Amino acid sequence: xxxxxxxxxxxxxxxxxxxILYEKFREVLKSIMDGNPPKLVIxxxxxxxxxxxxxxxxxxxxxxxxxxxxxxxxxxxxxxxxLLMASIIYESLTNGEYPTIRDLYYRGKHTxxxxxxxxxxxxxxxxxxxxxxxxxxxRDIEVFTNVLREEMLILSKEKGKVVGELKIRSxxxxxxxxxxxxxxxxxxxxxDLIEFVDVNAEFVLVIEKDAVxxxxxxxxxxxxxxxxxxxxxxQPDRATRRFVRRLNEExxxxxxxxxxxxPYGYYIYSVxxxxxxxxxxxxxxxxxxxxxxxxxxxxxxxxSDKLRKKPYLTEEERKNFIIKAxxxxxxxxxxxxxYPWFKSDRWxxxxxxxxxxxxxxxxxxxxxxxxxFLSDRYIPEKIEVGDWIV
Amino acid sequence: xxxxxxxxxxxxxxxxxxxILYEKFREVLKSIMDGNPPKLVIxxxxxxxxxxxxxxxxxxxxxxxxxxxxxxxxxxxxxxxxLLMASIIYESLTNGEYPTIRDLYYRGKHTxxxxxxxxxxxxxxxxxxxxxxxxxxxRDIEVFTNVLREEMLILSKEKGKVVGELKIRSxxxxxxxxxxxxxxxxxxxxxDLIEFVDVNAEFVLVIEKDAVxxxxxxxxxxxxxxxxxxxxxxQPDRATRRFVRRLNEExxxxxxxxxxxxPYGYYIYSVxxxxxxxxxxxxxxxxxxxxxxxxxxxxxxxxSDKLRKKPYLTEEERKNFIIKAxxxxxxxxxxxxxYPWFKSDRWxxxxxxxxxxxxxxxxxxxxxxxxxFLSDRYIPEKIEVGDWIV
Lengths: 390, 390
Hints:
Chain A has 390 residues and is an alpha+beta fold. Chain A has helices spanning 2-5, 8-33, 73-94, 101-108, 131-145, 210-218, 221-224, 238-251, 263-273, 283-286, 298-302, 315-321, 327-338, 345-357, 363-368, 371-385, and strands at 39-43, 50-53, 58-61, 65-69, 111-115, 122-126, 161-164, 166-170, 173-176, 184-186, 195-199, 203-207, 227-231, 255-258, 292-295, 323-324, 359-360. Strand 10 of chain A pairs antiparallel with strand 10 of chain B, so a sheet runs across the interface.
């Protein structure tokens, strides 16, 4: 069935991934055949080996490695799991499958029976109990082979959407993202397989909230300002991040991010820009170091003497729109304040303002002030005068 | 801006909604001018006035009404809120806005100052404190005017996606849903404004889980079986439900729903089919009484002597795939068992089987058994032999 109905792009991607997996694991096999103990050398994915690179402006994996050895009792189980998962992925690539990490977990889950020594009694051990175990070895395989899961045709749920002045080729189709009517184009889980065919946009606007994306889309924001409009619908998933990165890197389009004005909103921006702590080994491909935080800023709400900036909200609007920060917001802001990638003066000013005022603001409050205020004043004005943080 | 960039369809929808709102509230005004006390007569949205209609197979609002009177002290606040919200919606329609329920909350939120009697001291009262208050009057306005929020161009976030053998007109564009590449079409929040242009499909398959939707899409399921593939990405939102209903009602396509085999999955199916308890006033337009539950059924997992049905899973697969039900699953199943729309013999058999076995199964487990098993055997076979519950 796959041979007939899968796209050519997928068939090529399969061949490529199969080749790399084959070569990487053949080396392991060769080493064993040469009489060496079975082992894998993999970069450590620990927090201590996650480094913020101020030059590249990315969270990256450091150079520390560890050995996963079959003959080490503590590592034998993990070694087995890694090879089992690699073989399942290899097989699924061969068979034209499109697994998810959840069904890879199911595919590999079974009980191994063995004879205990010296008693020779029958022992039983499950390959893995929880998905966290199988997910962990998938990450190891990504790091070990330098092939991302998407390149191995492993799919996932996908929330990201896009509309705007862009034509893409996906699978066997060419899709005009300016012809989506009132709906939008749901980004595929494998955005590296997208080809950019034609672009007529001047910038990319990423909106954290789907409902606000719908509003700006419907009012024609991207037509008027020749933009590409993207929503991550909350915390961005891998595909949305990779898609945004490619728009920035390959099409040379500036990327502006808009989120709620609170530590969770700021962090969503930083995931786009710098990468996430748990997936630092992928920042180099998923993060967009040039992404600009357009708002909502604390200084948009209250203005700033230091920046000679006037507030966008009146006293009365602030009274009605702002929300008192919760204890966990304060706690989160204090954590953010210490992250190296928030250490710039500009960010410290925003975070300090948050910690002083102890209030937050949703992006919907600006739409509540008038959708035209948001689309025809707030956004274009801030872009024009350069009121963003990078 | 709106006049230039909004679609013709939206402009027409605005005019229509404005006309109805104007007429409905003019009646209220006229009655007041005639010397009657200011009041609104609205159908009750209480649980006791939510009735399951076994003929229509829908959860509907009964005929009981209540009066919201300005001169009743308990109702004066609600009366004011309802008229305030109606005027904000009316104004936003006039101004070419696309509000969300969240920003309608912000738009209306302010403090009213008044003189207390007899002391003549200044009193203050907020129009509303929480969004639950403003949401509640939006529902009242929908029921009172018989105009759904979507018809008033109130937007919302939207999770539903679709691909398949269907061409639609949305806004000013014609979109071929069989030309979405590896991505999908994200359904608009106002699906009543969609026009079906051309259909070449034989059935609709609704997949609860986005990741499984991605898999079936990518393997070409809808091409091979000439289907329209929809995902609700979890609990279905209003737009996805309305879209599915229209596919069934207007295109006469059978609708099959696939979810996890647990009470939450069964309930998701029943929301598609019967409506939800809180939105019963909209069932008549949002629910699809003919929707068929294709699986995953308890009897798919274990077979059934009574139905002379063989299980789809082997003993060994059951051991690896099934998950022990939690206390809250059991509790939920017992509630489901008592809902009138689950009272058929066939559903009682499934629910009893669940309560006896106390286990559940995710749809991903079937994909784990092989995506081709899911797409080329399980789904087509069950459709062919008619193994669904209606």
